[in-house]
Fold:
Amino acid sequence: MDQKLKISEVLKKYTMIIALAVIVILFTVNTGGKMLLPQNVNNLIAQNAYVFILATGMLFCILTGGNIDLSVGSVVCFVGAIGGKMMVEMGISPYLTLIAMAIMGMLVGAWQGFWIAYVRIPPFIVTLAGMLMFRGLSNVVLQGMTLAPIPDQFLVLFNTYVPDFFAVEGFNLTCFLVGVIACVVYAFIVFNGRRQKLAKGYYVEPLTGVVIKMAVICVVLLSFMFRLAQYKGIPNALIWVAVIIGIYSYIASKTTTGRYFYAVGGNEKATKLSGINTNRVYFLAYLNMGLLAAIAGMVTVARLNSANPTAGNSYEMDAIAAVIVGGTSMSGGKGSIVGTVLGMLIIGVMNNLLTLFGVPPFLREACKGVIVIVAVLLQKKEADA
Structure:
């Protein structure tokens, strides 16, 4: 009985990891190994970087009580349109354009955050209005045309690769060594954290379980970096994604501000009575979402090498789906960056696989819809247990 209970707990705790592993194995077999070709592994990051960036911001919105931002796809397009206008038509420096795009994204986030946090208009209504408004403004800025090409100084920040300092032919040794260093740092952090907890008398997981989990994570990471090393190495888009995930993981788990998002989503009234400015928390969630939408806009403009009036279509749906699939509660107060990353990977893998199989775009959306429903049913089953 105890053995069955332990297996049940393991399955519940690692549901998303198991699901991702099953998806990868099944599709690897069905594609004859094509899915794990170095170029396809690289494409997973290059083509889905926007999902990783937007889903990170969407997590904080949903944590505040199941609130979402429907406007992010339009904001990506709008910020990209402004960046394209500045660089292509006005000849402004790409570096000044980057700053202007970031500021514009934050202004958009502040605009929406004001109505949500201080006027108390429901986020669904505000961001639905934003979705329509910023899509329209994008077409006004671009006048319905595509602006291209984007200057190389801008493209190099997102579309190129970290050079191999060892110049090994056919294998980017620098890329693989970064993976090794990341594993060593990860192991140090885990063991150091465990040692500190033991010194304070806190409960810690059994050492065997910790070592097994660490070994699995390191093997997956090294396999991933090995595949990238066989192609062109570390794409700059991966660096942007890794930095953003690292920063927001720290904010969510180690800072007081991060804990406020969970508190507001768990019980806003109690949080307010404890002296926390809940309006400020809502405002910060959407201000932050605006900034990350701007960064996603930069990545999108660089990937397309153009500012396009149709860019960002359905980006908000991919971001919301990734957060839900990652186990975040739609009632707020529960979720994590780690879970969201797993959700992003599942959505990203599905995007790439369906494209690889030549599935029409409308059927891809249907498949992602089924995944979201299954994820919500699993959450419901866990809550009822």
